[in-house]
Amino acid sequence: MTRIILTALNLSLLVLFPLAWVAPLMRAGLLPIFGLSEISVLSGVMALWEEDVLLALVVALFAIVAPILKTAGLALIHFRMTDTRLLARLTALGKLAMADVFLIAIYITLARGVGVGRVETAWGLWLFTGCVLVSFGISLATSALAKRGALG
Hints:
Strand order of the largest sheet: 2-1-3
């Protein structure tokens, strides 16, 4: 039963992660009299692509590629289509995804500290963070099941 719940939660991330990539992470503006621009993971990567391709690729790796590869890998384990030895590599991918949430939080804190503009967190940041944390929990639970031999 636990494997079925983990599988369902994990498969829901295949829908929720892409939604989190287009959802607004924050709203930013230079002066209070102007409207705030919404920034999402995808709009951020696109903006970075115009300025710094290497940084855009790193952010895309952390925010998009790592989480979806980890989710797909966990699905393969849950459906018994690959060996549980893949879990160690998936844990490393999960760390990359969590690093992205940490970087976003640092950017928001720095922008607020400068005091020139205005930055507000948006619901997409909570969704993205929640997806990463749920994925982390699924990894831990999957590892525990693998150690008990309940996945093979």
